[in-house]
Fold each of these.
Amino acid sequence: MPKKPLKFFTTSTDCETAFYDALERADLNLMMTVWADEPGIVCIHPQGPRLAGFTAIRGSFTEIFSQGPNAKVKVSELRKHQGQTLAIHSVYETFTLPGRKETIPPVLATNVYLLTPHGWRMILHHASHSPKGTTVEEQGVMRILH
């Protein structure tokens, strides 16, 4: 398989922004640029198996993107722990499908990023369905963080 084109992500947040941009646009090339090219990378989609390695993860996103762009993703309630070379982000993902009125429960996601010689890269994406009523938005609560 040819080496994926490199894009330099200067922060873990830049890498995460590109991940969700690729997800919304169904852009396989951008999606695979986000991922580290290491055998230990892991992706777990909601109710899916653990996918390990670049080839398995690429295959899953190829399948997901085969229908083209079909969802908007709102990322909220970021909780972040960052060291010099590792960043862990916990977020809620809320998906909206055009033309559909039913509410899709949010997804809880943990994204882990590693600082590599080529910038920040994703090494883990683990997503699972969240219980209804757990997000701040669903609870109608306003939280102020300082």
Amino acid sequence: MAASAQKPKRLTINSYLKYYYDIPYEGTTSQGKPLRKLKNITCPYRGIKIIPQEALRTFERGLSRCKTALESTELLSKYLGNMLPVEKSLYAVFKDFSSLNPDDNLQNCLQMIRENCLTKLKLEEFEVLDDVDLLSRKLSTQTALKLRAKTTKCRQIIISDSKRDTFKRKTFLDSLEEIIPNSNEKEIFNDIKNKALFLPTSESSINAFVVKYSKRKQIEIVRRLFIASTGSIEHITPASLGGLNTIGNFLLTSASGNRYRENMPLVEYIKRFPKIPAYMQMYTDDIINEIHNGGLKGNETYPYKIKEKLMKESMGRIMISLSNYKFTKEEAAMAADEFEHRYDKYKK
């Protein structure tokens, strides 16, 4: 992911995606605009229904009027069916808090439970570091020592009470790039880096969420719960690994699902979420329904493109069925060409 931009003065949905999620709303993913406009689409990573683009303004207007914990939870309740597990669990905590403290704010709620969540978060981090150390046994002694030095330093930071020197997941991940493994151990070292990606984040752990957002204002906390389920354009093959900025390499995913994958190979992400192949089929079926109902004009070949792309990127673990699609591959290409011809003629 690219480095975060300077914090904008006013955090709108778009600027929030860029600053906190590091997901560009336009720019390199502008070819994904047709996908952003779709409704009732299943997230291919997490299986929830993605909040459509048209809901963003309505949410922002409602959020600007929320002053209390009760008002905030009432606003979020409209999107409960779209929430991911971490966000849904937090909503339940917020709902209980607001029923007892309706005029309070959600930041105070997180601050009340922060210390307990911090302890649990440290244990979660230790578990991943244990897995990394276990895999290091397959490395040469020299490489393993370099890796153990880094995981040992992380453990010392985690158990320290210092507020200055806190454990930062990204710092550890970046530090792994400093280790140059021998040519015969590159594969296992890649496995280690992929395992390290499972260090908890606010997308994967309620404890990480509480610790991170307990210092944020209520408006940011509420927006974060909503944003997690909004649409985001995801590269099937990550851009950092040569993935193209074309619709054939794009999926419409939840922002949280996109962010949590980072540059993780799809085969590794499937290990984390074994239901992804089934979710990908649900996603494709939703796309097909949109096309049959007149959506995605000019992109009738999209289901065929992602079927091939997903098969390759997942090393055969994702096999999409297009049996419900009314277009053959040739008919889809003809429909796309016909639309482009009419569109070019209209522009002239």
Amino acid sequence: MGHLIEIRDMYKVYELGDEPVHALDGVSLTIDEGEFVAIMGSSGSGKSTMLNILGCLDTPTRGSYLLDGTEVAKRTKKELAHIRNQKLGFVFQNFNLLPRTSALENVELPDLYMGRLSPRLRRKRALGLLKRVGLGGRHSHTPAQLSGGQQQRVAIARALMNNPPVVFADEPTGNLDTKSSIEIMNLFTELSNEGITIVMVTHEDDIAAYAKRHIVMRDGKVMKDDAEDGGVKKTTDEVARLVKEALS
């Protein structure tokens, strides 16, 4: 099992007035294929900046980022867009679905940009993914006709459309009720068990407990990384204790 993600000595510095702000301050880590990782920390800790750079939505000020063995830290915006569509899937707190478009059309969207499949095969794959996430009979529904949990399932199916090796999830249960949150996290667990790498940002201990690895950040630095625990899942209380110890 190789390193899917490898970052070395990563910095992201913003100039605010006369004082530079280090959103990332010398971060180094690796994430292997099939890992389920939760990135945690308070507001301003750097976790969202980390996710944006790992997801090729932003570039570091300096440092190295190898994605599936390819250096991407200094790529152009056009090159990063191609990498995102080819190798990465995204699930956001607010779903980010096209409101007047059916669930099927929302799922098809990533391949419309890539154009790898014929219309017939694109539709077949999208329908299969909707069935995979439990929405086989809802393909013609628009987001307004779906619950929050169902919309997030559509978003997950869309993230999987181009068969990416890694899915990034930014507070994926933030707008969901408890039942829907459990269903979505169980789905992420299944995808991880199938070999898809899941990298999730969350501030909720009970949601982070679904992951097998927890990275705690503060002031742009990694304060704790329990990778050495060998992928042993933690209870919610154990995750809460880990975060408290890392930030104390």
Amino acid sequence: MNELTYKRTQSAHILVSILLVSVLGGLFLAGISMPQFWVIGIILALIGFLFSSLTVIVDKTAVYWYFGPGFWRKTIALDEIIRVRSVRNKWWYGWGIRYTPHGWLYNVYGLGAVELHLADGKKLRVGTDEPDSLRRTIESECARSH
């Protein structure tokens, strides 16, 4: 990774809160002695940990992003990007990693995102709470690299 020009981590407070309430509520309602609820609780806690945040990084060569502690890393070289725009996702697209009518979406919270149009014709969206700032940074770095 080269010198960073942008780095932003967006936390998924609502997702983690929902999972925590679900785990604790399920254990309380079902009784702590039921082992299947412990397994479900551990799975939900793991999901909450892995998707607790989304970090987006831009340097002089690429755009990178990953969830939580480094889960599901993705890299797009700047020379693959032909267009970038700020967008607002539909609420029903949800959070996490999803396929939408606009390509793959990587998101942990909110509706803001940047849409990357790639040279191979594919599109994808990366969720952010700073879509305009991220878009400007990517556009600036793409202009320098092309």
